[in-house]
Design a protein that fits this description.
The complex is a heterodimer of chains A (118) and B (106). By secondary structure, chain A is an all-beta fold. Chain A is 0% helix and 52% strand. The mean pLDDT of chain A is 97. The model of chain B has no long low-confidence stretch (mean pLDDT 97). Classes of the chains: A mainly beta (118), B mainly beta (106).
């Protein structure tokens, strides 16, 4: 059974850093690209970052490039999103999602809320 | 940058047919995907590769994609279909979502 469970959200001050985790089970991270997607309050879904199935490539949305870093630890079956220099506009529910061979986001986590506020 | 444009909201009466559009430059040359997002839940795929339904998605959901517009159509709309719907495509290896359309079933 495929499961994705995000954690690490919370309240953080502007300019600070936070690391989100996405623990997966039921499949191997070496077979699937993994993504982070967020939804700010009252806004739509925004794609943020991708790590390739072999871990060798990472891609980012312009809005977070140079501030966010996606990575993974195969031994822990976990994907991470390191978020630096956080801004109030980064406040959102953050989801991790699996991309399958048909380029579908076929599995999603339940989301973790990040609030950037002083 | 590539953009996808959706109407902010559409409404439909129960049992009727509703279409949600998604516009992008030559979108028909790419694959379009559609996700349903209910409040408090994770997004769920309802259409992939323009017009294919994942297992478990009712036949009343259908899709098309041609020219500059992809369309999600829900026939015989039910109250449970009330949700936000997002189109999505791939551009230069990265994902892109439309702004979302709130479907209200009146």
């Amino acid at each position: 059974q495929v499961q994705l469970v995000e954690s690490g959200g919370g309240v953080v001050q502007p300019g600070k850093s936070l690391r989100l985790s996405c623990a997966v089970s039921g499949f191997s991270l070496t077979n699937y690209p993994m993504h982070w997607v967020r939804q700010a309050p009252g806004k739509g879904l925004e794609w943020l970052a991708l790590i390739s199935y072999d871990g060798g490539n990472q891609y980012y949305a312009d809005s977070v490039k140079a501030r966010f870093i996606i990575s993974r630890d195969i031994s822990k079956n976990t994907v991470y999103l390191q978020m630096n220099s956080l801004r109030p506009e980064d406040t959102a529910v953050f989801y991790c999602a699996r991309e399958d061979q048909l380029e579908r986001f076929d599995s999603w986590g339940q989301g973790t809320l990040v609030t950037v506020s002083s | 940058s590539y953009d996808l444009t959706q109407p902010p909201s559409v409404s439909v009466s129960p049992g009727q047919t509703v279409s949600i559009t998604c516009s992008g430059d030559n979108l028909g040359e790419k694959y379009a995907f559609w996700y349903q997002h209910r409040p408090g839940q994770s997004p769920a795929l309802v259409i992939y590769q323009d017009n294919k339904r994942p297992s478990g998605i009712p036949e009343r959901f259908s899709g098309s994609n041609s020219g500059n517009t992809a369309t999600l159509t829900i026939s015989g709309t039910q109250a449970m279909d009330e949700a936000d719907y997002y189109c999505q495509t791939w551009d230069r290896g990265t994902a892109l979502f439309g702004g979302g359309t709130k479907l209200t079933v009146l």
